[in-house]
Specification:
The chain is flat, with a radius of gyration of 14 Å. By secondary structure, the protein is mainly alpha-helical. It has a domain of about 30 residues. It contains two helices and no strands. It comes from Siminovitchia fordii.
Length: about 50
Amino acid sequence: MYEFTWKVFKKTGNIDIYLLLKELEKEEHMMNTLPIADKPDVINYPVS
C-alpha cells in the first residue's frame, strides 16, 4: 500500500495523498515497535 501511495503522490503532488503517506509511515512505525504479544493478528485472504 505504501509503494502505491508513494507512486500516486509522485505523479500528482496531491497534498492529501502525502498526508496519507505520512499516516501510513506512522502506523508502520508503531506496528514495528509493539511487542509481539500486542500485535493484532493479520489474516491474509487470497484474492481471486
